Amino acid sequence: MSITRFITKYIVRYPRTNLLILAIVTLFFGWALAHLEFDTSLSAFVIRNDPDMLYYNKIKELFETDETVVIGFKGDSLFSPEDLTFIKNLSKKIEEIDFVRNVKSLSTANLITTTPDLFQVKALMGKIPQSRQESDALRAHATTNYLYVKDIASADGKFYSLLVDIRSDPKRQRTNEVVKKIKQVLLKENAHTKYKLYLAGDAIINHSLGEYMQRDFFVFIIPIYLIITALMRLTMGRWRDTIAALFVITLSLIWSMGAIAVMGKTFNNVTIGIIPLIFCIALENIYFIHDIYYDRLRMFKDKAKAFNEALVLIFRPCYFASLTTVIGFGSLMVNNIKPLVDFGILGSLASIFAFIIAIVFIPTFHILLKIPPDLEKQLGFKIDATRFIMALTRFIESRKKWFWPGIILVILISVIGIFRIRVETDHLTFFRKNSEVYKSTIFIEKNIAGVSNLEIVVNTKKVDGVKDPENLKEIEKLVNFLRQQKEIDKAMSIIDFLKDMNRALYDNNEEYYRIPDTREAVAQNLLLYSMSPRRNDIEKDFVDYPYQLARIRCRISEHNSRKIIALVERIKSYIKKDIRPDLEVNMSSYPVIYSNMVNSITQGQAEGFLLCVITLLLTAIYYFRSFKIGALTMIPNIIPILFVLGFMGWTGITLNVGTALTTGIALGLIMDDTTHFFNRFGMNLSQEPDYVKNMRQTFLLTGEPMIFSSLVMTASYSVLLFSEFRLTAIFGLLCALTTLVALWCDLLLTPWILITFKPKIR
């Protein structure tokens, strides 16, 4: 007895045992699902073991600072008491939030001054100005002193901002909880003040990515369920079949998501996108199993015998169809980007689970029910696609010569479009332009300064090396170069504080706005500053405690990956050419880390696609026992991928972490219909050796399952188009488009291939 017949016999003979096993496994995965955790940090998007990310984490721990939140707003009037009172109160409320390390604003910033007898560090705004003269003095400091301008006030004094540094925690990512509390504070403030507050920064993008994706994919579960239920009822014709399909989908969802928790993995901003895909994965074989079951049931009038025959006939093609999906998802694992790898693992598991559940549950469900009384009747509420299928067969037979030039033209246009694709890792483009995240970012960057940080650390390799004027001059050269770059709105370092202190010591004489001449003078200035009761923790912001490292913090308003890469290369080139080689200069931060992903995404996409095609080809060759047939099955499946990639190039849709998922997923999913068509064609070939007549018969038998399953999948993806989150909408668009194009290729090219090349399918 073959393994297929043994499995089939067991499934059919013990339906109640099958239900018990399925229930136990579902309860186990359901319990695990209840403990599933989410990781929405930006670090989930990066390249695995990226040295820049590892260095960035080291710097975060050293300086005790994680990400920065920027709060901006337009003042009512220039430095009015009302504006300044609001800033003071808001700063105080945010400072009280746990894991807020520092709030930099007009009310918290320090002013370095001297008297004839005393070096003094006092509050920039000790009290709310009560006169025009006091207000003008504060405005002069805030809009002209480099320590403040473009950080806490715009150069024209019309806009204000608060910079909130989140304290790093080596044990746990605190960004989300801090951002949630900041948003709660701002929500209350917006409710009873006239100021419109804008919230931006890498921390906000980080938080919003998780917030949007969690909301979207969980909110869309119900609409997808409703649409799938309605369409399956119309295309299957019986409620019992629809209910069986819904059970398969639901169990697949629970098992797949529970498996993540069992493996100790977390859901992140990318892997959460698997939820609508699981619906489609589960639909792969449902229509074909039902179709062949009812065909055999009409023949034998016995449920057990019908399923014994049906499962033997359908097991191998369903297994192969699921295997191709596993291969498609598995191709994502060649990427070096963690969420893509996790998505590949999860998708592969979902494909395996969906196959097992469908093969076991559908026979079990129907065997426990009575034979439907309408078995021999025309179903009244079922869409009949027979006329459409017959029209397609006539078109294929009469227009065979059109296919060659048509295929060549589609491939040519698609390839040209592919060369137009641009890789982009800017997470701001994931949001629609009318979203709060996007509008806030643009507002602050346009009116104050960039919201992303670029971190540069100079290692003098000596204790107290930062106090050496010669090293400080090298740092000053680098800072001056950075300020000349159009992408950098502001570059702050220890240099700015030392110059400001030196000037203050000489009665604010601008001639002394320079680095002190001697190591002793530098050390003395730093000592005087550190002894002040209002010290601003320079060590934690711009130097380490042994004064070996100097940190330069740049605010950039550029988000384009290619431009950031060019900026980084210019900086590296300058460092190599103009900075003393004994100083070690390292650069890191999220913009740099994201830019590193550009080449990784491109390489991973190319390698993954090539691996997927080769593996699917070899698998098809083995399954059909023929190189020719294996190669022919790839034609209607590669063209949809080329078409969608070309569509991306022509329409300007960029290749990013989200869209990079599409090709591997699609190539695995869309091969199912081709497999079932070739398989049924081969089964009929011994009885009907005429290829054209066989094509007609096969089309009538498999056409409806192909059309209906693809349309239901397309409808599921299309729900995502209504998302407020641009990445979700584009992901849904590309998946829906790929499924539709693949359907047309299977409806037109697959039959044409069979009657044109006449393969001998055994």
Describe the structure.
A 4-stranded antiparallel beta sheet has the order 3-6-2-7. Strands 10-11-9-12 form a 4-stranded antiparallel beta sheet. The chain has about 750 residues and is of the alpha+beta class. The protein is built from 26 helices and 12 strands. Helix content is about 60%, strand content about 10%. It has helices at about 5-15, 15-35, 50-65, 80-95, 130-145, 175-190, 200-220, 220-235, 240-260, 275-285, 285-300, 305-330, 340-365, 385-400, 405-420, 435-445, 470-485, 495-505, 520-530, 540, 560-580, 590-625, 625-650, 660-685, 690-720, 725-755, and strands at about 40, 65-75, 100-105, 110-115, 120-125, 160-165, 200, 265-270, 450-460, 490, 550-555, 585-590.
Shape: elongated
Counting H and I runs of at least 4 residues, what is the number of helices?
A: 26
Strand order, largest beta sheet: 3-6-2-7
Largest sheet, described in full? 4 strands, antiparallel
User: What fraction of residues sit in β-strands?
Assistant: 5-15%
Name the poorly predicted regions.
none
C-alpha Rg (nearest Å): 32 Å
Structural class: alpha+beta
Give the fraction of residues assigned to helices.
Answer: 55-70%
Average pLDDT score? 86
Provide a quick synopsis of the model.
By secondary structure, the protein is α+β, with helices and mostly antiparallel strands.
Task: For the structure shown, list the relevant keywords.
elongated; four-stranded antiparallel beta sheet; 762 residues
Layout of strands and helices, then pairs:
Elements: H1 3-13, H2 15-33, E1 38-39, H3 51-63, E2 65-74, H4 81-95, E3 100-104, E4 110-114, E5 119-123, H5 132-144, E6 159-167, H6 175-192, E7 198-200, H7 202-219, H8 221-236, H9 239-262, E8 267-268, H10 274-283, H11 286-300, H12 303-330, H13 338-367, H14 386-398, H15 403-418, H16 436-447, E9 452-459, H17 469-483, E10 488-492, H18 494-505, H19 519-530, H20 538-541, E11 549-556, H21 561-578, E12 584-588, H22 590-624, H23 627-651, H24 662-685, H25 691-718, H26 726-757
Helix pairs in contact: 1-12, 2-9, 2-13, 6-7, 8-9, 8-25, 9-10, 9-13, 10-13, 10-25, 11-12, 11-25, 12-13, 12-22, 12-24, 14-25, 14-26, 15-23, 17-21, 21-22, 22-23, 22-24, 23-24, 23-26, 24-25, 24-26, 25-26
